[in-house]
Design goal:
660 residues, Na+/H+ antiporter like fold, 79% helix
Length: 660
């Protein structure tokens, strides 16, 4: 139970970090997650929290790399294979050798084999970390793809180099021939096992699809188990589990290419599930880093207080040296275009951010060797932690000077509004089924409203104006004798309850449900009417309730509401301007919805369905024409097309909410 609670708290930290990053976009997400992890470290349940490296690699690293593998472009891997091998293997081996000798020469207290192990720890890069620190200064597609592909394969090179160096330190023996042979077996053996097992699982899934058993629970369940199974088998065979899951992920990507438009529902669900899992696991990595840092610092101060400053300095020096090696390697040996080679090399250098694998390797160092405490363990972990933090901080400071400035206006958001407007315009042109068309138009308009998010105070101010305008119109009807005093009194109660309902606070919503349940049950003397009233949204039930109330008293609500509605619309048109447009649209939608429900108890579901299809078709035609005319690039076009597709799916899943 305690472990479940701990996981729940860490998941809450991931959610909180993502919320903070959305509202403070200038600070990359990893810093919020690391900070929240450090805050959690002071809680009693987390004070002695320790990461089990084997569990960390099995449960977090393996699924993350499998997902990156299945999302990787086989075409891009083929095109940039030379660069990938150069960075993932050549640069790792070169860095371990050159920097390992350098660290040992400068700091003889660190044995040569441990110096090699330390550099092997800080060499693997993390694409998730790169994406996070570059979120405010996006890199080009080619740069991000190269960094992503590099991180898929250099993890294994770093792990193998680390294992060899650590084994040499423990045993005291080292053979270059044996080391090279072991490297080749572990490296290519992992790829082979992953490719074979991944292909077998792909064939199993293909067979299930052919016999009609492509239910999401079955197919996605197999997919989720795949990285765990592949990693376990490879590690049991003393091969690279990391490369095995990457190879299996690439095999899974091949299956997705074959499926194309078949098993669409399964593919959509699978993509959404993996997106959530990857986001959660990536977040947990940085929360775990934040949890670990305080303990690392405290233990380093306890065991080597006098060397704390030196250890931090070594970490800074290793990061600087590693970055310089990466910079000159990228400048001289990578094919990164003939233009801006120095800037591109600098970006590739900054793209070498550390994260998951570095953290895992650092904590996988043994606590004891030959029955004695491993005295240098905490110092080496502290050095690795310094390198990780610097690899996240430095790009945030330097990247803005290297990456071309992005336009401040969000072109996707602008085109989203235009696309929604095309659907709304199609509904405004609809004359035969006006009520159903208005429901669709308001639903599309609400998407714009949710994106604009007007302030509560502004909405309240405008709503008070609409109430005054409507009450003034009703008083004019009473004064000239068009309606009776009784009708004016009850309609003013209807307006006041509108004001109460529109606030939509939780306690008001509950109060209204209870009140309507009591009144409807008393009116019809039936328990099921009271039950239905409680389960119906007050915003939907209120107009229907008052219409029946007026009818029960022999009065007609429709002409009175029409006069009030006209007065409100006139007022909203008068006060609308650029600053309050989203707030006015919110309130206008509320009154339109009320007006429809007063004048019609129900709507034709088939006609409403046809109107939604018509609106979605209008949106498709709009973005297709813009793309054909060259006004939209393919990336924004695909995002908008995805938005329409998900809107269609959402409507199909929630049709009843539009007619209840």
């Amino acid at each position: 139970m305690g472990q479940v609670v701990i996981f729940g708290i860490m998941l809450a930290a991931v959610i909180a970090g993502n919320l903070l990053a959305r509202h403070i976009p200038k600070i990359p997400l990893p810093f919020f997650l690391i900070g929240l992890g450090a805050v959690l470290a002071v809680m009693p349940s987390f004070r002695n929290f320790a990461i089990d490296p084997s569990v960390f690699s099995f449960a977090i690293i393996a699924p993350l790399l499998f997902n990156e593998g299945q999302n990787a472009s086989r075409l891009q891997i083929g095109r940039s294979l030379t660069n990938i091998v150069s960075l993932a293997v050549g640069l790792v081996i070169f860095s371990v050798i050159i920097l390992g000798f350098s660290v040992h020469a400068l700091f003889p207290v660190i044995p040569l084999s441990l110096a090699f192990a330390l550099i092997a720890i800080v060499t693997p890069t993390d694409a998730s970390a790169v994406s996070a620190v570059a979120q405010t200064n996006p890199l080009s597609n080619s740069q991000m793809q190269l960094l992503n592909n590099e991180s898929l394969f250099n993890d294994a090179a770093g792990i193998v180099a680390f294992d060899l160096a650590l084994s040499a330190y423990v045993s005291g023996r080292f053979s270059a021939t044996d080391a090279l042979l072991d490297f080749l077996i572990v490296f290519f053996g992992g790829i082979l096992v992953g490719a074979i097992v991944g292909t077998l699982i792909v064939n199993l899934r293909a067979w299930l699809i052919r016999i009609g058993d492509d239910e999401p629970l079955i197919m996605v369940g197999i997919q989720l188990l795949t990285p765990l199974l592949v990693y376990f088998l490879a590690e049991e065979l003393a091969l690279s589990g990391i490369l095995a899951v990457v190879a299996a992920g690439i095999a899974q990507g091949v299956e997705r290419d074959r499926l194309r438009l078949t098993s669409a529902r399964m593919q959509i669900i699978s993509a959404n599930i993996w997106e959530m899992i990857a986001a959660v696991l990536s977040g947990l990595v940085f929360v775990l880093l934040g949890l670990s840092l305080p303990n690392v610092v405290i233990e380093a101060l306890r065991g080597q207080a006098g060397l704390f400053g030196l250890l931090v300095g070594i970490g800074v020096l290793i990061y600087a040296a590693k970055s310089l090696v990466r910079f000159f390697w990228s400048r001289t040996l990578l094919r990164i275009g003939k233009k801006n080679r120095w800037r591109n090399a600098l970006i590739m250098m900054l793209g070498g951010a550390n994260g998951t694998i570095t953290l895992s390797l650092a904590f996988s160092m043994p606590r004891t060797i030959d029955g004695h405490a491993f005295a240098l363990r905490q110092g080496l972990i502290l050095i690795a932690a310094v390198v990780i933090l610097l690899s996240l901080i430095v790009p945030v400071v330097v990247l803005p000077f290297c990456v071309p400035k992005q336009p401040k206006r969000n072109r996707q958001y602008i085109w989203l509004r235009r696309m929604l407007s095309a659907g709304i315009d199609a509904m405004r042109d609809e004359t035969e089924h006006h009520s159903e068309a208005q429901i669709v138009a308001d639903a599309l308009a609400q998407e714009m409203i949710l994106n604009d998010n007007p302030s509560r105070r502004l909405r309240r101010s405008i709503f008070e104006g609409t109430i005054t305008a409507e009450k003034t119109a009703i008083e004019a009807l009473r004064a000239n004798g068009t309606i009776t005093q009784d009708e004016a009194h009850y309609y003013n109660r209807f307006i006041d309850l509108n004001d109460f309902t529109a606030d939509q606070r939780l306690w008001k919503n509950l109060f209204l449900r209870i009140r309507f349940s009591f009144n409807m049950g008393r009116m019809y003397k039936a328990f099921n009417e009271a039950q239905n009233a409680f389960l119906t949204t007050p915003l939907n039930l209120e107009p229907i309730f008052w219409k029946r109330q007026f009818t029960a008293h022999g009065e007609d609500l429709l002409p009175i509401e029409q006069a009030g509605y006209n007065a409100v619309m006139k007022y909203l048109n008068h006060v609308e301007n650029m600053q309050n447009r989203s707030a006015v649209n919110t309130i206008r939608r509320f009154y339109r919805d009320r007006h429809r429900r007063v004048h019609s108890d129900s709507f034709d579901g088939d006609i409403l369905y046809a109107m939604f299809l018509k609106a979605f078709h209008a949106e498709y035609e709009f973005i297709q024409q813009a793309f054909t005319d060259g006004k939209l690039n393919r990336d924004i076009m695909q995002r908008l097309q995805t938005r329409i597709t998900f809107d269609e799916i959402t409507y199909l899943k929630n049709q009843e909410s539009f007619i209840v």
